[in-house]
Amino acid sequence: MTDDILLVDDEAGIRKVLGISLADLGYTVHGAENAAAALTIIETVRPAIILTDIKMPGMNGIELLKAVKDRYPDTEVIMLTGHGDMDLAIESLKFQATDFITKPISEVALTVALQRAGERIDMRRQLNAYTQNLEHLVEEKSRQLIEAERLAAVGETVAGLSHTIKNIAGGLDGGMFVLEKGIELEDTAYLQQGWKLVRGNVDRIKTLSLDLLNFAKTDRMAYRPVDPGQPAREVFDLMRSRAEAHGMDFVLEVETGLAPIQMDPAGIHQCLLNLVTNAIDAVLDTEPADGEQRITVSVSAAESGGVRYRVADTCCGMDEPTKARLFQRFFTTKGERGTGIGLMLTRTIVHRHKGTIDVDSQPGKGSCFTINLPDRPR
After folding, report:
1. Are residues 98 and 227 in the same domain?
2. Other CB atoms closer than 10 Å to residue 357's CB: what's the count?
3. Residue from 29, 27, 25 nearest 14 by CA
4. Are residues 96 and 231 in the same domain?
5. Final residue belonging to a domain, choices 67, 87, 105
6. Distance from C-alpha of 271 to C-alpha of 267, rounded to nearest angstrom
7. Does the keyword section mention Metal-binding (predicted)?
8. Strands 28-32 and 99-102
9. Which domain holds residue 39?
10. For every one of its 378 residues, what pLDDT tens digit does the chain have, with 9 covering 90 and above?
11. CA-CA distances (angstroms) from residue 253 to 19, 100, 236, 303, 314?
12. What's the structural domain count of the chain?
């Protein structure tokens, strides 16, 4: 039972008599002769139940009810009214009064009204407790779900990484077997073939290690204003000799007048490097549809603001099932040469910039990867 109760009535006699009855019921009674005094007491005592006369000088009981419900909506207010004020009493129910009692006040009516108020208070407390428990339960289940998803992702990553390492180890075993045969037979062709296999798989180990290190760095993006053309020019200068050594037409197109945007230049450099490296490998592995071996890197303003990067090649293109799996963990189209991390890393970096990456590719018509970055990623 709630200990504190506020009795508001301009008649001192009623406050005294009714106060005794309330005290006998176990309440600590606070009295107020008008609504203004009641509001002052409410600020200090915060009673859960208020009994107030409807007709009082100055602010009447309904106005007090409205003020209490506006400030303390959980407070239960019981109205005291004379027989001639029934319309006002009924009106008070529209403003969320708990009940009303007619004067002279009978002990039975008072007990029933107080019991109803107490039941509402208890029900509200139970509801609040249930809501809090439900929130804690949802929070705990959400935490467990996130943990389960994290463990599943870790398991999937470990499984994919183990498969990749197993393939590399198998390649090294094969290379060493050929080398041993070459040494045993003193066969130069075997030696060259075995060494090529070993060197290729050692390169895969190096690439895998670098990709994993770069992936770990994606949580530490260092954003600053950068000329959007800068990462593209750096990648172009870095990869031009390799492309030209294989007879490819390597083109860089940077729109003039591009404004600096907030980005992590090292991250975007890594994205473009991955895409250009993939394009060169794709062109080397396939016969171009139009007889040309061409890779184009372009930088332009995006329609919605920010910058757009495109890396296009003239390789044989990809079908829909391949495109659907491009950004999955450890999926690669490079066979034994790929790690399946590069495009996953690229997408992660782009998403850290709040950007998007899309691919347009059709068999026989080449591929074009498009990165759109906003001018402010955070």
Report:
1. no
2. 21
3. 29
4. no
5. 105
6. 6
7. no
8. unpaired
9. 4-105
10. 457 899 999 888 888 989 888 998 889 999 999 999 999 999 999 999 999 999 888 899 899 999 999 999 989 999 998 876 778 888 888 888 988 888 888 888 888 999 988 888 888 888 888 777 777 777 777 677 666 655 555 555 555 555 556 666 767 777 787 788 788 888 888 788 888 878 776 776 766 666 666 555 555 678 899 999 999 999 999 888 888 888 888 999 999 999 999 998 888 988 898 888 888 887 776 654 455 688 999 999 988 789 999 999 887 777 778 777 766 655 555 555 555 567 887 888 898 889 999 999 888 778 899 999 998 765
11. 89, 82, 10, 17, 16
12. 2
Two structure tokens written together for 145: 């779900």
- The answer to whether position 166 is within a domain reads no
**Whether residues 241 and 368 fall in one domain:** yes
Can you tell me which residue has the tokens 């009978």? 106
**How far is Cα 335 from Cα 312, in angstroms, rounded to an integer?**
21
Tell me which of 105, 136, 154 is where a domain ends: 105
pTM: 0.47
Classify residue 188: in a domain, yes or no: no
Residue 287 belongs to a domain with what CATH number? 3.30.565.10
Q: Which two tokens stand for residue 207?
A: 């690439």
Burial 219-248 (b: 16+ CB within 10 A, else e): eebebeebbbbbbbbbbbeebeeebeeeeb
Residues 227, 369, single domain; the answer is yes
State the Cα–Cα distance between residues 302 and 206, nearest whole angstrom.
35
Helices 265-285, 229-245: inter-axial angle, 10-degree rounding? 30
Same domain, 100 and 241: no
Helical axes 107-185 vs 12-24, angle rounded to 10°: 60
Q: Is residue 302 part of a domain?
A: yes
Indicate which CATH number applies to the domain containing 58. 3.40.50.2300
The Cα–Cα gap between 117 and 78 comes to 8
Q: What is the C-alpha radius of gyration for the chain, rounded to an integer number of angstroms? A: 39
Q: Which residue has the tokens 């600053």?
A: 224
Q: Are strands 261-263 and 224-226 parallel, antiparallel or unpaired?
A: antiparallel
Exposed e or buried b per residue across 320-331, where buried means at least 16 C-beta atoms within 10 angstroms of its C-beta: eeebeebbeebb
Residue tagged 């980005």 (tokens)? 263
